[in-house]
Amino acid sequence: MPSALAAPDVVCNGVSKTFAGRSGSVKALDDINLRLESGTLTALVGPSGCGKSTLLRIIAGLEQADPGSLLTVDGDDPREMRRRGEISVAFQDASLLPWRSAASNVALARQLARQKPDRARVNELLELVGLKGFEKARPAQLSGGMRQRTAIARCLATSPRLMLLDEPFGAVDELTRRRLNLELPVTWADRGVTSLLVTHSIPEAVLLADRVVVMSPRPGRVVAAVDVDLSRPRRAAHLHSDRFHSLVDEIGTLLGVDTDLQRSEQRA
Ligand code: ADP
Ligand code: MG
Fold first, then answer.
1. 27 Cβ inside 6 Å of ligand 1
2. 5 belongs to a structural domain
3. pTM of the entire structure?
């Protein structure tokens, strides 16, 4: 990451969002106050439909917040930053172009951001996410987990300062998810890219994040922000520590969910 462009602080100040529809309006977000600190990974958890994706899209500059909301990404315009490849976004479905190879999908991110082609970097990133030897494979020839890895490599291809990930591991099977949880984030979380990760898995949030932000049911509000004081790099051993479990329980209680069940899914 070029040191001239440090990872940004992202500040949401009174961010609200109401969707106007034919059958009335839906208030998705209500007065969100949140700071993503430079170089840290924040996980966003909350019940389905509480506005997590909406908030991520607002920060990405893909959606407009209501008037009166204040969003700053180091004083820059998120849409411009995204065009320059400084903000990378990944969604639950890897959304790769099916007719392009893995390498070509990753390379495309640089092209779209008008960065010069860099085949060495593309190959290096594919190797980093464990896809050495699959550079020429089309998405249909890759497993779900491999497609998500490709999407993460694509996110990293432009050397973003801000990564926004919306349930990036949501569509892969549980075993693969756990492996990706342990293997992939070191590729960016320990490099100091400011990141926001939306997830429905509390153990995943605790394992990966520096801070877990808990949202209320719709309209989404911030219920609590829990700092995760586990050492980095995060390893499988953390999953068995008492501190890990007490954090999972604390967040589960805030959300009102059965964390024993979530934990057994993580372990099984
Ligand atoms: P989450 O990601 O937490 O599951 P979303 O941000 O996707 O929640 O959605 C929050 C609420 O906003 C939901 O009630 C959803 O139906 C509504 N919503 C999201 N996007 C739109 C849209 N483009 N138009 C209308 N309503 C929307
Ligand atoms: Mg969502």
1. no
2. no
3. 0.91
